[in-house]
Design a protein that fits this description.
The chain is an alpha/beta fold and 198 residues long. The chain has a single domain, classed as Alpha-Beta Complex (Maf protein), CATH 3.90.950. 32% of the residues lie in helices and 25% in strands. It has 5 helices and 7 strands; from the N terminus they run βαβαβαββββαα. The chain has helices spanning 10-19, 46-61, 95-107, 172-178, 180-197; strands at residues 2-5, 26-29, 65-74, 115-126, 129-142, 158-160, 165-166. A 7-stranded mixed sheet has the order 2-1-3-4-5-6-7. It is globular.
């Protein structure tokens, strides 16, 4: 089975390859194909955006395509940055800028809990039909300050209580064991294995 992984994020591609390395699947990255412009992510939910991206790249490639949409949901900020996590503040904002804005906004709501979660919605599109969908979620707290040099994105400010660390302070295999993307792509691996047995 050939499967197009519809993301231009090299860190995500690396994680996904690691999670699916034991699966009977030949992964193709967008970087392996002729360039195509990215779709506008207009969905109101992670699930909407995952389906939108998977359908878009499936139509352009003619391949079975998986896409995911993920982000950080902070309760005290009414769910922000949410589906706009990758574009929070502005598309070219650095993560240190985003962290600073989050800490500033949380300071203005110091009476509210710092609970948060990472969410990853995943969709596999065959033609234009949804072949498989799942969502992974990991609960945590926004740290008092960024910590750790591992991971990427918002990992340095996402404190995971069972590890007593942020997801940027742990080894990649420890992160993937609990993280939202790890959950979603392990579910995909089970689906692929079940298909291979039929």
């Amino acid at each position: 089975m050939r499967l197009l992984v519809a993301t231009t994020n090299r860190d995500k591609v690396r994680e996904i390859r690691s999670l699916l390395e034991a699966s009977p699947v030949d992964l193709v990255a967008l970087s392996d194909l002729p360039p195509v412009s990215e779709p506008e992510e207009t969905g109101e939910t992670f699930e909407d955006n995952a389906r939108l991206k998977a359908r878009y790249y499936a139509a352009h490639s003619g391949m079975l395509t998986v896409a995911e949409d993920s982000g950080l949901v902070i309760d005290a900020l009414d769910g922000e940055p949410g589906v706009r996590s990758a574009r929070f503040l502005r598309p070219d904002a650095s993560y240190p800028e985003r962290f600073a804005a989050i800490f500033e906004r949380l300071a203005a709501r110091a009476d509210r809990p710092r609970t948060a979660r990472f969410v990853c919605a995943l969709a596999v599109i065959d033609g234009q039909d949804i072949a498989f969908e799942t969502t992974g979620t990991v609960e945590g707290v926004i740290a008092q300050a960024p910590a750790g040099t591992g991971g990427f994105g918002y990992d340095p400010i996402f404190y995971y209580p069972p590890y007593n660390a942020t997801l940027a302070e742990v080894e990649e295999h420890e992160k993937l064991a609990v993280a939202h993307r790890g959950q979603a792509f392990r579910a995909l691996a089970k689906w692929i294995s079940a298909l291979a047995r039929t």
